[in-house]
What does this fold into?
Amino acid sequence: MNFFKNLYRLGKLTLDMRSANRESGTLHKKVQKMMQPFIQAAEAYNDGSITPRMHKKMQWYMVETLWMSEQFAQLHQTKLDNATQRASAFSGALLGISDILIDDLPEGSLAHTQNFLYAPVNHTPKTPFEKLYTAYFQAFESCLSADNQVQTREYYWASLDAQVASRRQFEPDLPSEDLIKILKDKCGYTTLLCRAVLPLPIDASEHTMIYELGALVQFINDINDLHKDSTQGIKNFANQFDTTRAMKKALLTQTTKAFGLFKNIEHQRKSSIYFLFIFHSFVVVILAQLRYYEHLCQGHYKLERFLKFPPKSTKVQPFLWQNLRFSIPKMLNFDFIHPTASLN
It folds into this structure.
């Protein structure tokens, strides 16, 4: 019975991800419509520093936050109204702009920019990016209600703190424990932000669970970005390990922790199973990626050897038979009672 239910869940997830992973997908079209007034208004003050590529980056951020908020809404058996959808999407736009601003800043300008990002209404925006950020921030604030305003702001500020702290990932001697804290904060608080826009309070247990689930997502992203981050001199979850075996062990440790915390919280069973199935599938896909890294290096992964390959050639092709043969059985053997059993 589990097999057929998982087959249905996999089909549903595939359609859902097509909406988010393709620029012609439904979610992309939705956020493009939201962005259009801001893009048009920016034409009056843009000096060329805001490029189409940067708008595209914001679009992807908006899709990611909105998609995640939708998953939390399904989990809590509710629907996102128009204002909540916009709040979620605009939080993604703000994080996209702040990411660009923080990453490109010289050290001496950081304090001023931090002050501006936290309270743009208290400053006069000077640059095109500051003007764009202010416009999105005002729209974001206008979408918040009495039910979600306090917690949404709290997690937005925490997400900004994490973005600023992530500049330390360029430090070659960054201690491992500091790195892990930075990584967990970065996606942990962003994931909490996606949940915070729902007009439902977040208690301590749910906070911890979502934080650890976000950390798992960050570790998955870091494995996927191993080549890009390593080439750019960015320390991440994956490039601190000498072997893919060590990466897998640490990843599964975090998976066990996050899934265990999730199962300790009561939600409607059907929505709980599908929610956990989603993240189980994400882990399966990244395990296939790790297998591919090992394959590229002829069974002896070394980061230096891995980085000699062109970036495009390091991405796993999910629809190749050998990858389907690895991933599909694990997804179809998902068991809510023992969610990590099929991952080993």
